[in-house]
Amino acid sequence: xxxxxxxxxxxxxxxxxxxxxxxxxxxxxxxxxxxxxxxxxxxxxxxxxxxxxxxxxxxxxxxxxxxxxxxxxxxxxxxxxxxxxxxxxxxxxxxxxxxxxxxxxxxxxxxxxxxxxxxxxxxxxxxxxxxxxxxxxxxxxxxxxxxxxxxxxxxxxxxxxxxxxxxxxxxxxxxxxxxxxxxxxxxxxxxxxxxxxxxxxxxxxxxxxxxxxxxxxxxxxxxxxxxxxxxxxxxxxxxxxxxxxxxxxxxxxxxxxxxxxxxxxxxxxxxxxxxxxxxxxxxxxxxxxxxxxxxxxxxxxxxxxxxxxxxxxxxxxxxxxxxxxxxxxxxxxxxxxxxx
Length: 340
Prior knowledge:
It is an enzyme of class 2 (transferase). This protein is of the alpha+beta class. It has helices spanning 10-21, 41-47, 70-80, 128-172, 176-200, 209-224, 244-264, 308-319, and strands at 27-30, 36-39, 86-93, 101-109, 120-126, 207-208, 231-237, 241-242, 273-282, 285-292, 323-328, 333-339. The radius of gyration is 36 Å and the shape is elongated.
């Protein structure tokens, strides 16, 4: 049975024309051959189209031909045929002697049920200023990224120079105590350099501790362990990710504890051992432990007097709202920094 169609109700067309013509937004009402039935005053004013005589003209013919865009015409025809609908189509309106505009086009057919003719409402939004603002913003972000990269490069070079000067000075001084202090300073600078390098290659919002602790311990071991067959540093870290500020504090804590273990846990040049750095998330908190299998804590209370490294660890732990617990493993020592 052949499907019947009914003529388009005149009151429906009149209502559509009235709504489009009075709209404060740029709207155009088209028939099924892309002839303009009505256009809002806001459309004519925004795009320099003469209001008089706009109705009855082909949409592609208005203005000076700038609306004759093949891809847009194809999409409109596909919309009329029911094969597509234009939710968002972005295009440049190139006008002779005027600035090019960036437009968002939205087009949908009006539902007149079984009416014979199809009507299409075209909504046009000028987003030129928004796109310009986005471009300026993107350019500024790109410029700042380049500047940040240059600063990071210079900081890395400066840290390497400082570390080299400290190490060379340590080799020249006669006092063993001064030499030890200079080497400690060198190792601290190297740990900061490693942290800076790691942060420069990761997201500014997230730092993966597993790779960071591994690289940090490798750097400390390379500068302080003469025989890797005798002493080693291992890490067991879960998939925890922290913000940069927290990673800085944790990295400095690990540096101080590992350096302290290398200096005091294995006093003999023939003694073998391992330092283990462990980190894991515990509920809403976390626990960091540095354990060695060396000689353990000194028996003499005088020898247990806290040094600079201990003060640094306690201060950093306080910043993280964590507690520090030192345990004599017999043999070995275990230091736990936990926020539970």
